[in-house]
Amino acid sequence: MTKFCRRNKIWWIFYDVRSLRFGDGCTLFEQLWNRSGRKHLHLPAINPPYKKQFFRCPKYGEDKGELASADSYKDVVSWSKLITSHARNGRLDVARQVFDHMPQRNVVSWTAMLAAYVQNGRIEDARKLFDEMPERNAVSWTTLISGYTQNGRLEDAFQLFDKMPERDVVSWNAMIGGCVRNGRIEEAEKLFNQMPSRDVVSWNSMISGYGLNGKPEDARQLFEKMPERNHVSWTTMIAGYINDGNVDEARDLFGKMPKRNLISWNAMIAAYAQTGRMEEAHDLFEQMPKRNVAAWTLMVTKYAECGQIVKARHLFDVMPKRNVVSWTAMIMGYARNGRIEDARCLFDEMPERDVVSWTSMIVGYSHCGRVEEAHQLFEEIPERNVVSWNAMIAGYEQNGHDKLAVLLFLQMQRTGMKPSQGTFTSTLRACASLASLEQGKQVHEIAIKIGYGNDLVVSNALITMYAKCGNVEEACQTFHKMPEHDLVSWNAIIGGYAQHGKSEKALEMFQQMQLAGVKPDSVTFIGVLSACSHAGLVDLGWHHFDSIIQEGSIIPRMEHYACMVDLLGRSGRLDEAEDFIINMPVEPNASIWGTLLSACRIHGSIEVGNRAAEHLFVMEPKNASTYILVSHMYAAAGRWDDVRNVRKMMKEKGLKRQAGCSWIEGKNSVHSFIAGDRSHPLTERLTGNA
What we know:
Number of strands: 2
Largest sheet: 2 strands, antiparallel
Helix content: over 70%
Strand content: under 5%
Distance between the termini: 71 Å
Number of helices: 42
């Protein structure tokens, strides 16, 4: 082995670090470390940037005891920076090991570890560490307060804030910002008025709070009172108008800005684009004195979202500089507009890709129904995050591959990747489609374990899952355990009750929904009309249907008309049901006529049934179900010659009755059995012929 002089060897180590070849650099350093007897190696000549890179080297994150014996690593600031670096990269356990092996600590290092817990959502661990701190400063208190507000625990934040021995403007701002983020604008206002002194951040936080809570007038009054304003003040006020839909007011204020920066220009362009005013957005873009890559990418994105993919591509082609976000925006534009081949060509041309660009292609393929290609890309991703997992799980679920969606969720669990809200909603929808109650319960348990048990969106998915799996009682319990309900929550429980024939409960929940001040939508009325149908409440059904028409805010969908036909048909009012269909303002589909035909079979109305069947024979000539329904209708009336004629017609057309299917859930799997098919390995045992 060639022997290098010490100076040259150290230079090579840092050549490797600069090239991001951390492993090679660490190996060479370890050789020097061992050769020096693990106590005499000092690095006084290392430039600070390279020293910082060394600290980020994973090898050093694990060798704490030995590092502690090197004099050049004994300063507390360097150790604290190492803790922060590991925490930012998600290596929280390593950060804690570094903290535990520190030769000495001060309030800075304790606060660095506290911030590491907060940044990674470990708020209980943060509180425990806070209580153990030998001394605290305003930064320590403010860090934990921010952690509480970021996790929605505003009461805990207030308690801590009240105990602070000394508050500075930063801690006041942290509480105001927390109130704003959690929608508690009145409490934010109270704190703002109590502040002994304010800075521009305090004023900006309140303006933002008013804007986010639909109070643009209050925001403007506060804006006018500001002793000094910065770019953030002006942009926040503009954003408030935009959020409230006052684009012209925003434009007026934008015109009055003494000096505009790229953020304000981009905010105003985005406002025009989001409201469909692309010409004005483009005019403003052309007026920009200086455009950065974000401005170009914004225009590409907005043109693509509006379906103007040719203009989007033109801007992309003339961009003076592109980054991975620009490429991804164009790829997403193609995918969103159904041009998946163009998206793939661009993806293949990308000079560099990140997880977002890979995920965009997965979503694009999934939306086109090309799940196998989506899965192939998913397997090729160099590094996956929770969004890429969610994209693939959702892709399976949306394309009817529910079993694969659940299996992928389980695989995700085994990798240690923490699921998000989107993970649970897609997986629960898959469990609902499979009618897999046990797997749905397991997903529910995992959601509770990692803190999503009371999440609004996840709880809504749980209600639907339990209802579709036949456990409407558990759906009801989930609903009543929720700390808050939105429109989706009410629709899920009303629909769940209606689906299981519990009409009184469904209608009772509808009344409670109205008393709670939640305005029903078209989905709500599908559940209500379905409940009326199951209970035979014709007059009440007509009342609710007429209320949809009269109010005018909801346009009746085909499902509403189908519910009314079912309601009238179940009640034996077949002539009325037929008249209703004939007078529909939209062309009835096969489902509408099929509902009427089913009612005619039950009530023995041959004449109306024949007319319904004639429509179905034209609309769906290859659908065997229509012929079978007609055959059953004739059989119930004892018209056996007509039964034989219908069966003869089926035979001549080559139509066969679809085999019945049943399923059994056991050991976390759903087993399907088709009538006449004995290919399932458990068939013999289940039929007793083993």
